[in-house]
């Protein structure tokens, strides 16, 4: 980005494109970093200099051509997309002004050209770190409050507890009055962090023996609320241990999304659901967008008074974005995974 235009903008910027669809594990050669001209906004459009973008597990799903998730798949030869924050550079004919902090869905590029209607203005003072707008907190909050309806006195099981969603779901469940919170993760190292740093009371470990046995030992009196990010044997274990009237929120399906097995089904004994009046509720943020301002208020307050933390990892430079996604899928990070651009 050496050449500059008369307005001081660089002549070119970089974007990450999908080079090919995965047939197996996610590898470098499925991505291409391309240098392209910085776009110029027409009236009604906003040119944003992206400062930070997030990668997330759903992006592995969106690399496939056809998916059940209510988001467009990535297109071969075109830049990937996903949440990003940045500063407005130019916004002719809109309510935005240069310097405004904004969030939008056109990450994976250094400069984004976005229709004004698809740009959300963000308050610089609400969160102590603007990157926290990229947390998976809205999903975690939705799943705890409206999905699992966590109440005071609950024992709660969060699957995928160390990820972007799960690392906040446990903290939010505690603030809603849960008395015992158990999380699942993929290694002893992460299990230790869940208990020592993220407020979990106990952890069960994927690959360290039957989850149901581990969960029975961690929750001898059963579980009242479940925040399921994983599905498969973890959901089966949650149902086996669910108390009468338990609420189970189906928020993610990491075992199907990331295992590469292609298996998308979980066998469930429906008789045990109805016999114990268990609620199984699929829930998606798209239907609960109105919760986002409420969450941001609570997140800002919680980060400042120390009742919430934002577990995350940051990588630097757009060329690191493919590695960030690959490492997230491999389970190498705790919390959200962000890339500074
Ligand atoms: N319903 C909604 O509106 C909504 C919105 C956003 C996200 N989601 C979903 O919420 C879930 C969590 O999202 P996230 O972005 O926070 O993901 P994430 O948990 O950060 O995903 C990465 C983690 O998945 C775990 N993992 C890897 N392979 C796995 C496997 N085979 N089985 C089980 N876990 C595996 C690893 O954690 P460990 O090493 O700890 O196992 C890894 O660190 C995803 O399913 C996502 O699609 C739903």
Automatic annotation (TrEMBL):
Transmembrane segments: none annotated. GO terms for molecular function: oxidoreductase activity. The keyword Cell membrane does not apply. It comes from the Bacteria. Coiled coil: none annotated. Gene3D superfamilies: Medium-chain alcohol dehydrogenases, catalytic domain (3.90.180.10), NAD(P)-binding Rossmann-like Domain (3.40.50.720). Its EC number is 1.-.-.-. InterPro entries: ADH-like_C, ADH_N_2, ER, GroES-like_sf, MDR_fam, NAD(P)-bd_dom_sf. This is NADP-dependent oxidoreductase YfmJ. It comes from Streptomyces rimosus subsp. rimosus. The gene is yfmJ2.
